[in-house]
Amino acid sequence: MRAADVPPPYLLVAHSLGGAYARVFGASQRDDVVGVIMVDTFDPDLQSAWIHPLLGPLRAEYDAELDGLRDLVARVDSLRWAESEAELRTSSVAGLQIEFVVAARYEPRLDEQTNTRIAERWVAARDSLSPGRVRHTTAVGSGHFVHIERPEVVIEAVRRMLAGPQ
Question: How many domains does the chain have?
Fold first, then answer.
C-alpha cells in the first residue's frame, strides 16, 4: 500500500482466499488497519480444526475436498501452501474489528442437529480470531459470491465498520 502511495488507515475487505491474505496483513500491520470485512472467506485452518471433527462419516470426503482446495491455491497462486497456512495459523488478528459476511450453508446429508452444531462452531471459530470484536452476518439467498449476488450486504458491513464500534 505504501508503494502505491495509499496511506493508512485501511479497512480490509476480503473474499474467499483473500481472507487468508487479510488476516496475515492485518496481523502484521495492525496499527494501520481499522477493521476487516471477511466475505465468505476460505479459512482452512478454522475449517479443519473446528468443523471437520463434527462431520462424522463425511469427514474423509470433506478432508479430501479441503486438501484439493489447498492444492489448487498452491498451483494457481504459486504458493507453498503448507508454509502459507502455517503463517496464517500464527497470524493473530486479536483486537481488530472483524465482520464475517457469509452465505448460509447446510449439508443435507447430515441431520438438523449436526447442521446447527456446525453453524454454532463456525461462529465460535470466527469469534476466536478476535474475541468480543467479531460480528456475523449471513447473506441469505447468496452463494459464495456474496459481493456479486448480495452486494448490499457487503456495503452495509463496510458502512458499519466505518461508523466505528457500536
Answer: 1
Q: Extract the residue ranges of the chain whose pLDDT is less than 70.
A: 166
Decide: 37 and 158 in contact? Cβ < 8 Å: yes
Q: Is residue 2 part of a domain?
A: no
Give the pLDDT confidence score for residue 166 in this predicted structure: 57
Q: Is 104 contained in some domain?
A: yes
Asked if residue 132 belongs to a domain, the reply is yes
Q: Is the entire prediction scored with pTM above 0.85?
A: yes
pLDDT 10s digits, 50-59: 999 999 999 9
The confidence score (pLDDT) of residue 79 equals 87
Q: Which domain holds residue 63?
A: 10-163
For helices 18-28 and 81-90, give the axis angle rounded to 10 degrees: 50
Please spell the DSSP secondary structure of 28-43, one letter per residue.
HTGGGEEEEEEES---
Residue 8: phi and psi, rounded to 5, are -70, 165
Cell numbers for 162: 466505518
Position 3 in a domain? no
